[in-house]
Amino acid sequence: MAESGLVIENLSKRFSQRGETVDVLRSLNLALAPGELVTVIGASGAGKTTLLKAIAGLEKSDAGSITFAGQPLKRGQVSYIFQKPILYPHLTARENILFGTRLRGFTQELDRDLLDYLLDILQLHDLQNRKPAQLSGGQAQRVGIARALIRKAPVVLFDEPLSSVDEELSATIRTEIQQLHTDLGFLGFYITHDQNEALQLGQRVAVLAHGVFEQVGSPAEILQRPASLSVARLTGYPALSEVETKEGTVAVRATALSRGEAENRSDVVLRESRLTLGGLLCAGELAADTFWTARGGVRVRLSAGTVLRWLENPTAEATPAEHYEVGIKAADVHLFTETP
């Protein structure tokens, strides 16, 4: 990894809670290339915001280092986009965007072309004279994004900026963020608990759990080869089934996908997006009230009662309430063993 990027090395952070020491971050290591956008996904309490604040210099780490271009990262090199935009109520949207450029220490000349570009991409041209009270939640967050980017900081941190925005608007703003990143080329570090955000925005995705990165890879790698059960759950694998193991042989109760007696227990994750009509793995029927949508997919109810979602548009005609054989390729089934 080039030295000109952001390097997190052996970063650790502990907190004391009720007399006990809790390791929130445990010797984290991650290197980001210049201009790369990395998303970090994790459940609530995984340490995502603590990590972001440590990078921004808002939280002192107990060990480790954070460097940019081979030198300790400075606050002036970082822009921070908060979960909820902190706007000055007496200033207009335009004045809020420009506020950081008028502070002592900002020595660059205002780039008016950049300002016009941000107003255009973030759909703020007609809103720039409004006060925050006159803006919707999504509009206010767009103002916060523009305010962070107008400073031209080389590192931009996103602290779950879309967590309070409805899904339709979130999808629109995600597209805008992608366009901003492509055009401006900043190094982005984006934390979220939403797999849609993580997989759509990240050129790489880092899965944070229990204070460590359980897996770092491209969205395709994370989806196709999850390193652990927690990674699979965080990135959108809702269907889990048990298998039987006897003398090293794994037997899947494939036609039923129901619970059976077993000497050992393991979790199997089925990539539901890869369901196909045909194949002899299991039998089921399409739910009577189902229809295909880009988000919800087609629901298939198996004979044993298990319901799977078929996330891709079927290539063959499929009629609700009709019975079909459903196949799942072996490459799209992931086995995770648990140590007793």
Automatic annotation (TrEMBL):
Taxonomically, the superkingdom here is Bacteria
**One cellular component term from this protein's GO annotations in UniProt:** ATP-binding cassette (ABC) transporter complex, substrate-binding subunit-containing
Keyword presence, ATP-binding: yes
SUPFAM superfamilies xref list: P-loop containing nucleoside triphosphate hydrolases (SSF52540)
Q: Name one Pfam family in it.
A: ABC_tran
Q: Which UniProt keywords apply?
A: ATP-binding, Nucleotide-binding
Q: Which InterPro entries does the UniProt entry name for this protein?
A: AAA+_ATPase, ABC_transporter-like_ATP-bd, ABC_transporter-like_CS, ABC_transpr_MalK/UgpC-like, P-loop_NTPase
ABC transporter domain ranges (all copies): 6-235
Signal sequence span is none
Protein name per Swiss-Prot or TrEMBL: ABC transporter domain-containing protein
For this protein, the record's SMART domains field holds: AAA (SM00382)
Listed GO MF terms: ATP binding; ATP hydrolysis activity
